[in-house]
């Protein structure tokens, strides 16, 4: 998946349900010596239904890893939506309460290319 934006750009994350939901996007740049971790955007306050962050990166192409962690709390029901530049990028919903344990969880992970113009 490719997302093309101009810098500065917005990333937003919305969440709902009875589970605790946090997420982050790690930004990596290819380098002749390997990968360089350029930036990290964290959506770490599960008490907020929505978080919005603004990023500034130089022009270029970046590989981004999006990870979302969902943990059963009041219940396991969850829904989330991650957007870049106002465009839906990843979303999911469901119920992580799959066992009799009180701490069922799920990690959602995906990857995309971020092109900064």
Beta fraction of the residues? over 45%
Widest sheet: strand ordering: 1-9-6-3-4
SSE string: EEEEEEEEE
CATH class: Mainly Beta
Helix coverage percent: under 10%
What's the assembly state of these chains?
Answer: single chain
Structural class: mainly beta
Q: Biggest β-sheet, characterized?
A: 5 strands, mixed
Q: What is the total domain count?
A: 1
Radius of gyration from CA coordinates: 15 Å
Number of beta-strand segments: 9
Shape: elongated
Low-confidence stretches: none
Q: Tally the helices.
A: 0
Topology:
Layout: E1 2-5, E2 9-17, E3 19-31, E4 34-43, E5 50-55, E6 60-72, E7 77-84, E8 87-95, E9 105-116
Parallel strand pairs: 1-9
Antiparallel strand pairs: 2-5, 2-7, 3-4, 3-6, 6-9, 7-8
Overview of the structural elements:
It is a single chain. The protein has strands at 2-5, 9-17, 19-31, 34-43, 50-55, 60-72, 77-84, 87-95, 105-116. The chain is mainly β. It has one domain (2-116): Lipoxygenase-1 (Sandwich), CATH 2.60.60. The strands form two sheets. The protein has a five-stranded mixed sheet, with no helix packed on it. It starts with a strand and ends with a strand. The model has no long low-confidence stretch (mean pLDDT 97).
């Amino acid at each position: 998946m490719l997302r093309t934006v101009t810098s500065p750009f917005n990333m937003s994350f919305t969440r709902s349900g009875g589970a605790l939901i946090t997420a982050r996007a790690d930004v990596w740049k290819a380098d002749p010596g390997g990968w360089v971790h350029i930036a990290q955007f964290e959506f770490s306050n599960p008490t907020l239904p929505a978080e919005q962050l603004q990023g500034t990166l130089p022009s270029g192409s970046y590989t981004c890893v999006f990870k979302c962690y969902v943990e059963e709390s009041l219940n396991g029901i969850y829904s989330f939506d991650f957007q870049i530049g106002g465009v839906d990028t990843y979303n999911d919903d469901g119920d992580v309460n799959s066992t009799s344990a009180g701490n069922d969880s799920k990690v959602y992970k995906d990857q995309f290319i971020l092109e900064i113009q």
